[in-house]
Write a structure and sequence with these properties.
The structure is a single chain. Helix 3 packs across helix 4. The chain is built from five helices and three strands. It has a three-stranded mixed β-sheet with strand order 1-2-3.
Protein backbone atom coordinates (compact mmCIF):
# COMPACT_ATOMS: atom_id res chain seq x y z
CA UNK A 1 0.00 0.00 0.00
CA UNK A 2 1.93 3.07 -1.17
CA UNK A 3 1.44 6.37 0.63
CA UNK A 4 2.61 9.78 -0.47
CA UNK A 5 2.88 12.56 2.09
CA UNK A 6 4.51 15.95 2.36
CA UNK A 7 7.56 16.78 4.46
CA UNK A 8 5.56 19.01 6.82
CA UNK A 9 3.25 18.70 9.84
CA UNK A 10 0.12 17.84 7.81
CA UNK A 11 2.04 15.19 5.88
CA UNK A 12 3.40 13.69 9.08
CA UNK A 13 -0.12 13.63 10.56
CA UNK A 14 -1.25 11.66 7.49
CA UNK A 15 1.68 9.26 7.95
CA UNK A 16 0.82 8.82 11.63
CA UNK A 17 -2.79 7.90 10.80
CA UNK A 18 -1.55 5.43 8.16
CA UNK A 19 0.89 3.84 10.63
CA UNK A 20 -1.77 3.55 13.33
CA UNK A 21 -4.10 1.91 10.81
CA UNK A 22 -1.38 -0.60 9.84
CA UNK A 23 -0.64 -1.39 13.48
CA UNK A 24 -4.33 -2.00 14.17
CA UNK A 25 -5.08 -3.92 10.95
CA UNK A 26 -2.13 -6.30 11.31
CA UNK A 27 -2.21 -6.40 15.15
CA UNK A 28 1.35 -5.09 15.43
CA UNK A 29 2.89 -3.48 18.49
CA UNK A 30 5.71 -1.58 16.78
CA UNK A 31 6.97 -0.50 13.40
CA UNK A 32 10.27 0.44 11.76
CA UNK A 33 10.38 3.16 9.10
CA UNK A 34 13.24 2.82 6.61
CA UNK A 35 14.55 5.65 4.47
CA UNK A 36 17.47 6.67 2.32
CA UNK A 37 19.58 9.50 3.75
CA UNK A 38 19.42 11.56 0.57
CA UNK A 39 20.06 15.26 0.95
CA UNK A 40 18.56 16.89 4.03
CA UNK A 41 14.94 15.84 3.52
CA UNK A 42 15.06 12.86 5.86
CA UNK A 43 16.15 14.86 8.94
CA UNK A 44 12.78 16.33 9.88
CA UNK A 45 10.96 13.04 9.27
CA UNK A 46 13.48 11.09 11.36
CA UNK A 47 13.23 13.61 14.23
CA UNK A 48 9.44 13.48 14.06
CA UNK A 49 9.40 9.66 14.05
CA UNK A 50 11.68 9.55 17.10
CA UNK A 51 9.38 12.02 18.88
CA UNK A 52 6.46 9.66 18.15
CA UNK A 53 8.35 6.66 19.54
CA UNK A 54 8.77 5.13 16.08
CA UNK A 55 12.16 3.73 15.07
CA UNK A 56 13.58 5.36 11.94
CA UNK A 57 16.38 3.47 10.18
CA UNK A 58 18.64 4.31 7.25
CA UNK A 59 19.62 2.22 4.26
CA UNK A 60 22.78 2.79 2.25
CA UNK A 61 21.91 4.65 -1.01
CA UNK A 62 24.59 2.74 -2.93
CA UNK A 63 23.08 -0.57 -1.86
CA UNK A 64 19.62 0.67 -2.80
CA UNK A 65 20.90 1.42 -6.30
CA UNK A 66 22.54 -2.00 -6.65
CA UNK A 67 19.51 -3.86 -5.28
CA UNK A 68 17.20 -1.85 -7.51
CA UNK A 69 19.07 -3.02 -10.61
CA UNK A 70 18.96 -6.62 -9.35
CA UNK A 71 15.22 -6.44 -8.70
CA UNK A 72 14.14 -6.31 -12.34
CA UNK A 73 17.47 -6.29 -14.19
CA UNK A 74 17.06 -2.66 -15.26
CA UNK A 75 18.58 0.55 -13.87
CA UNK A 76 15.22 2.33 -14.09
CA UNK A 77 14.31 4.58 -11.17
CA UNK A 78 10.95 5.36 -9.63
CA UNK A 79 9.71 6.26 -6.16
CA UNK A 80 7.60 3.08 -6.09
CA UNK A 81 10.54 0.86 -7.03
CA UNK A 82 12.84 2.60 -4.51
CA UNK A 83 10.25 2.11 -1.74
CA UNK A 84 10.02 -1.61 -2.49
CA UNK A 85 13.80 -2.00 -2.47
CA UNK A 86 14.14 -0.05 0.79
CA UNK A 87 11.36 -2.08 2.43
CA UNK A 88 13.02 -5.31 1.33
CA UNK A 89 16.40 -4.17 2.68
CA UNK A 90 14.87 -3.22 6.04
CA UNK A 91 12.99 -6.53 6.21
CA UNK A 92 16.30 -8.36 5.70
CA UNK A 93 18.15 -6.28 8.29
CA UNK A 94 20.32 -4.20 5.93
CA UNK A 95 19.93 -0.90 7.76
CA UNK A 96 21.52 1.31 10.39
CA UNK A 97 19.79 3.08 13.26
CA UNK A 98 19.46 6.84 13.01
CA UNK A 99 21.93 8.62 15.26
CA UNK A 100 21.84 12.37 15.56
CA UNK A 101 24.82 14.32 16.81
CA UNK A 102 24.53 16.93 19.55
CA UNK A 103 23.42 20.35 18.30
CA UNK A 104 26.88 21.85 18.93
CA UNK A 105 28.48 19.24 16.67
CA UNK A 106 25.97 19.94 13.89
CA UNK A 107 26.61 23.69 14.16
CA UNK A 108 30.36 23.11 14.01
CA UNK A 109 29.95 20.87 10.94
CA UNK A 110 27.91 23.57 9.18
CA UNK A 111 30.51 26.18 10.11
CA UNK A 112 33.31 24.00 8.68
CA UNK A 113 31.37 23.49 5.44
CA UNK A 114 30.76 27.23 5.15
CA UNK A 115 34.46 27.92 5.83
CA UNK A 116 35.48 25.52 3.07
CA UNK A 117 33.11 27.22 0.66
CA UNK A 118 34.44 30.69 1.49
CA UNK A 119 38.15 29.77 1.49
CA UNK A 120 37.92 27.80 -1.77
CA UNK A 121 36.53 30.77 -3.69
Amino acid sequence: MPLEFGNHREGFDLLERWIQDLLKTYKLSSIIVGMEPSGHYWFSLAHWLLDQGIEPVLVNPHLVKKNKENRDNTPSKSDHKDALVIADMVKNGYYSPVRFHPEEYEELRILMTNRETVTCL
